[in-house]
Amino acid sequence: xxxxxxxxxxxxxxxxxxxxxxxxxxxxxxxxxxxxxxxxxxxxxxxxxxxxxxxxxxxxxxxxxxxxxxxxxxxx
Length: 76
Known about the structure:
The structure is a single chain. By secondary structure, the protein is mainly α. The protein has one domain. Helices cover 57% and strands 0% of the residues. It contains 4 helices and no strands. The longest helix has 15 residues, at 43-57. The mean pLDDT is 92.
Protein backbone atom coordinates (compact mmCIF):
# COMPACT_ATOMS: atom_id res chain seq x y z
CA UNK A 1 0.00 0.00 0.00
CA UNK A 2 1.12 3.50 -0.77
CA UNK A 3 -0.15 6.33 1.44
CA UNK A 4 -1.22 8.27 -1.64
CA UNK A 5 -3.68 5.45 -2.44
CA UNK A 6 -5.92 6.23 0.54
CA UNK A 7 -7.40 9.47 -0.88
CA UNK A 8 -7.95 7.67 -4.18
CA UNK A 9 -10.33 5.27 -2.44
CA UNK A 10 -12.61 8.26 -1.86
CA UNK A 11 -12.20 9.93 -5.25
CA UNK A 12 -12.16 6.96 -7.65
CA UNK A 13 -15.48 5.40 -8.51
CA UNK A 14 -16.51 2.00 -9.79
CA UNK A 15 -16.55 2.29 -13.58
CA UNK A 16 -19.07 -0.52 -14.17
CA UNK A 17 -21.43 -3.01 -12.58
CA UNK A 18 -24.09 -2.83 -9.92
CA UNK A 19 -22.21 -0.13 -8.00
CA UNK A 20 -21.18 1.98 -10.99
CA UNK A 21 -20.23 5.55 -9.99
CA UNK A 22 -19.98 4.70 -6.28
CA UNK A 23 -16.69 5.62 -4.57
CA UNK A 24 -14.41 2.63 -4.00
CA UNK A 25 -14.42 3.46 -0.27
CA UNK A 26 -18.22 3.16 -0.21
CA UNK A 27 -18.50 -0.27 -1.80
CA UNK A 28 -20.06 -2.91 0.45
CA UNK A 29 -17.85 -5.57 1.97
CA UNK A 30 -19.66 -8.45 0.28
CA UNK A 31 -18.92 -6.91 -3.13
CA UNK A 32 -15.24 -6.50 -2.28
CA UNK A 33 -15.14 -10.09 -1.00
CA UNK A 34 -16.63 -11.26 -4.30
CA UNK A 35 -13.73 -9.65 -6.16
CA UNK A 36 -11.30 -11.26 -3.72
CA UNK A 37 -12.76 -14.68 -4.58
CA UNK A 38 -13.19 -14.15 -8.32
CA UNK A 39 -10.15 -11.99 -9.01
CA UNK A 40 -9.50 -8.28 -9.02
CA UNK A 41 -9.47 -6.50 -12.39
CA UNK A 42 -6.13 -5.31 -13.75
CA UNK A 43 -4.78 -1.82 -13.33
CA UNK A 44 -5.45 0.92 -10.84
CA UNK A 45 -9.07 -0.03 -10.21
CA UNK A 46 -8.08 -3.58 -9.26
CA UNK A 47 -5.30 -2.35 -6.99
CA UNK A 48 -7.71 0.02 -5.23
CA UNK A 49 -10.41 -2.64 -4.90
CA UNK A 50 -7.86 -5.00 -3.37
CA UNK A 51 -6.71 -2.32 -0.94
CA UNK A 52 -10.29 -1.50 0.04
CA UNK A 53 -11.00 -5.19 0.56
CA UNK A 54 -8.04 -5.45 2.97
CA UNK A 55 -9.19 -2.34 4.82
CA UNK A 56 -12.76 -3.64 5.07
CA UNK A 57 -11.79 -7.21 5.95
CA UNK A 58 -9.58 -6.00 8.80
CA UNK A 59 -12.17 -3.58 10.20
CA UNK A 60 -10.16 -0.51 9.29
CA UNK A 61 -12.80 1.56 7.48
CA UNK A 62 -12.56 4.26 10.20
CA UNK A 63 -9.03 4.87 8.89
CA UNK A 64 -10.69 6.79 6.04
CA UNK A 65 -12.81 9.05 8.28
CA UNK A 66 -10.23 11.86 8.60
CA UNK A 67 -9.88 11.91 4.81
CA UNK A 68 -13.66 12.05 4.41
CA UNK A 69 -13.83 15.01 6.79
CA UNK A 70 -11.02 16.79 4.99
CA UNK A 71 -12.73 16.24 1.60
CA UNK A 72 -16.04 17.45 3.02
CA UNK A 73 -14.45 20.61 4.41
CA UNK A 74 -12.61 21.36 1.17
CA UNK A 75 -15.91 21.19 -0.77
CA UNK A 76 -17.67 23.63 1.58
